[in-house]
Specification:
The chain is α+β, with helices and mostly antiparallel strands. The protein has eleven helices and eight strands. Helix 3 crosses helix 11.
């Protein structure tokens, strides 16, 4: 995980005086927002972006979100039925799950944004209480979301926190794994868009804008929906007629507020989790 999104973000920061990249395409949104706030991303506008869903776009046009994944609780179907498996963050705090849960370390990947969303959604006091509850249940931290899903699929854990695409990967491997969307307080599931952004000072600005226009096109969202990751389009018209998941209840959370909580959340997780 450290060599993926976080590694690319650090490289963009290091190259800021003389950028090598023209466009940044990320599998998440929170670090993209932080780059925008640091002045490393430039505004981009075209005919498509005028009608972009507001919750998946920076007000200044410095990034756009597309092709959603969601946070989920995966479970081993040889150990649990769908009715028995936990469905919410609160369910995971019940004593029956002690020693049975795995999750990726929040320092890297989408788990950091997930934990930060608890701070934004519930408030810091309640979020820290949740982390303490997971610690009391002896949650095991692993190196990434794919490892979390693999441990569940191979029977090394009963339930795990991960992203939708990692569960789909496990199912392609014929692992006994299924999922419930990770509901926060029965108010919805955190959705995580891919993001694309124009790098400030892009060395090839004309080509960069052409690439941005392509990445934001309906064609690309349809392509991503039809990959093994099965990303959900952010534009309902694009999703029509596609065999892709419909996330039932996206959590109403401000991505910028989640990004603001990222450092606090990671530090709290490092302090409180085993």
């Amino acid at each position: 995980e450290a060599s993926k999104t976080v590694g690319l973000v650090q490289r963009l920061r290091a190259e800021a005086p003389a950028p090598a990249a023209d466009v940044f395409w990320s599998g998440e949104v929170f670090h993209t927002i932080r780059l925008a706030e640091e002045g490393l991303l430039a505004p981009y506008h075209d005919d498509q972006t005028r009608h972009w869903p507001a919750r998946y776009a920076d007000p200044q046009g410095r990034w756009y979100g597309l092709a959603l994944r969601a946070r989920v609780i995966c479970y081993n179907t040889n150990r649990l039925t769908a009715a028995e498996a936990p469905r919410s963050l609160e369910d995971l705090l019940k004593s029956q799950w002690k020693g049975r849960i795995v999750m990726a370390r929040p320092a890297f990947g989408t788990t950091g944004g997930d934990v930060a969303s608890w701070f934004a959604h519930y408030g810091p006091e309640k979020a820290r209480e949740i982390l303490r509850g997971l610690a009391d249940n002896e949650v095991r931290q692993v190196d990434g979301n794919s490892t979390s899903a693999r441990m569940v699929g191979t029977g090394q854990a009963d339930v795990g926190l991960t992203d939708t695409d990692d569960v789909y990967a496990g199912q392609r491997n014929n692992w006994p794994i299924a999922m419930h969307y990770l509901d926060q307080g029965w108010e919805g599931v955190l959705t995580i868009p891919n993001t694309v952004a124009l790098v400030q000072g892009a060395p090839h600005p004309a080509l960069a804008k052409q690439l941005m226009a392509f990445l934001l096109s309906p064609k690309v969202e349809r392509m991503l929906a039809q990959t093994y990751s099965r990303n959900t389009p952010v534009r309902p018209a694009v999703a029509e007629g596609l065999d892709c998941p419909r996330i039932p209840k996206p959590l109403e959370v401000d991505y910028a507020k989640v990004a603001d909580r990222l450092t606090e959340a990671i530090e709290a997780a490092e302090e409180l989790l085993p």
